[in-house]
Amino acid sequence: STAGPAGPPGSRKPFCREFSIGAMAMSCPGRGAHLCFRRLLVITVQASLLATWSTLAGAAEDLTMQLYRASLKSNDMTELIPEGVDGFIGPDRPAGTVAIMFHESSCGICHSALPELDAMAKKFKAAGMDISVAQMEVSQAKEMIKRRFHLRGFPSLVVFRKRAEAIVDDDRPAALDGKSLRVTGDNDLLLRASQNAKMGKEKNAARLRALGKEGEVIGIDLVDLSAQLSVPEVGKIWFPLEALVKAKSGAALPYHRSEASFMYSGAWKQTEMKQFMERMLAPLVEVVSGSSRDKVRSLVDKELFPVFFCCGGKEVTSGFVDAATASQGKTRSFHVPDPESCPAPLPSASDPSKPHVLVYSPAGQQWAPSTKALRSAVTIAGPEVVADPAALVSWIQTNAWPGIVELQFHNFADFVNAARHGLMVAVRGPRGTGGEVSRLVEKRLREVAKPDQLDPRTDLYTYGKSNSSHFFAVIDGSLDGLTNFGVSPHKLPRVVVFEGRDQWVEEETELTVEQLSSDLEKLPKLWKSKDGPYGTVLWMMRNTELSFFYYHDWCIKLCGPEVGPYVLPALMAGFGLYYSYAFLRLIPALVRALTESDPPKEALEEKKESKKEAEGKKEEKKEK
After folding, report:
1. How confident is the model at residue 463 (pLDDT cuts 50, 70, 90)?
2. CA-to-CA distance for 138 and 121, rounded, in angstroms?
3. For a FRET experiment, which of 83, 171, 333, 403 has its CA 20 to 30 Å from that of 424?
């Protein structure tokens, strides 16, 4: 582009269109060739960067596929077919602990996840660890694999723990098939085992009718360690193997619930998967003896989730084993025979000679305005709860998040889906940022939680039986995804109360940090938010109510307290009457349109001819 002469006085200023490739082909009057060249150069550089990024993205995708294909042929993982699964997870498995990743060739996430597992399998093999890793491409048997392993999608990583007892020939699945087994006579054991095996409650009545009876084995599933029996007068029904005994000797079968399949849930990265696998390689309940309290604490200082401790007693109870089994994917469990070595001192009113169960959250999991003020948190179950297996499992579920937890991406979903309602406060920045607002948040939360101080480093939290007592957490309000729950990073702090998996409460004016204790009493009267179409309807109703009261207050300020309260209702009534009148006027026309029959064909033809004749006359007249 060449420079043109300046315009006459009073004319518009010279111009040059920016960021438009098409405009660069035209002249740029008044700015000079150097300016247009510079802008053309910028656009060229941008286009080059875009092309480079596209090339790199394509290369990265090609590299991912190459790594995926290489993993399919890896010597460090066994390639399975559906017919080979039972042999891989059965009594003759290649290692004590076995893991299988189910993947699909058309799944994008699988292309990244399988190479990560392959890299981890190489490290396990090089270290000589007692674990064998396998992979299965499921495109040809997708639905069958989903049903058998209770999978929701792919990729899925399933792990089977090392067996606690050796499987002799008489106890192998093939040997048990067709033989008689007897159902336990313990009502509580049968119901608890069925619940731990995640069997449908609708069959519990039939299972209870089979108490103490013998039945013929017609099928065994090694995935969830269950057997289908044909019981006289009851029929064919599935039972967990731990609830069955041998018909003649009455001996229990050498299968344990912790050895059933356990599915990984987390990010498909080598670091997270490795931590999960290491937990599955460790004993379900680790025994810690001869250690000091500080040493026991140091064992779990870096854990990402609260830890279970059984303090005192020679052995752990069956209820503690059930809780450890259910949470083994993310939570470690310990048995500390000496109460003095427990990570937190037991309450003075409690008998230390009897076993207690602690849910312990290290200081690294807690939130505070200052990192120097971080303290560990614990909740403690006494001997009367520990002695009842069902009561202990229920207690651990409703006491799983002691203290004021710092929420992040790794623990957010578990906190929201906990067995107790969760109270979350979104603040500006992560823990340790300080400030008056953060100190106010901590003060108000502790006023509601009312923790007791066990020692200078530990707080004891107590939760009631009802959901009126909440779990507490604080989160950085700038994290992605919080806007889905009505939390804006520009309006902090904000309080959100989660009431189960798909319902929550957030009110900017009715649920505040400043008046947290009194505002929580309003919860039953506040609008609930939900996902899905029903949640959208609730959101519209809630915003309608907020709009009404906003304009109602505005009318009172404008017209005074005597007249103001009646202005908005009068206007709404007027609009309602007007639209009702308009609608009523439309009804007769709608009725006529629906009831009148269509004119006959002859009449339509006549009308068409008359119209054509009229148009012809019109043309004639126009020509004259």
Report:
1. confident
2. 20
3. 333
